[in-house]
Design goal:
The chain is mainly beta and about 90 residues long. The protein is built from no helices and 7 strands.
Length: about 90
Amino acid sequence: EKTDILEYFDLPYFRFVQGATMHNGKIYSTEGFTGDTLNQPAIRVIDTKTKTEVYYNIMKRGYPDEAEMIDHLDDKCLYSDINGNLYACDFD
């Protein structure tokens, strides 16, 4: 119910979300498409405490394809790409 929401905030947003997870107070969102100049493959990290975000273009960081899913195992951030490859990454 609407009364269950304790707090919320808005951030600019225009990309396509592929998946998201929350870890240690941050939301990790995979988004974008390979070959799309407007919506390039990225992982957006949103800090819910400071209400700020950091946007990482993953292809410019050397990862070959768009991310489809993301999660954490312990303190390791993992994501799978469009081809089913699994990557360990550090975006902090």
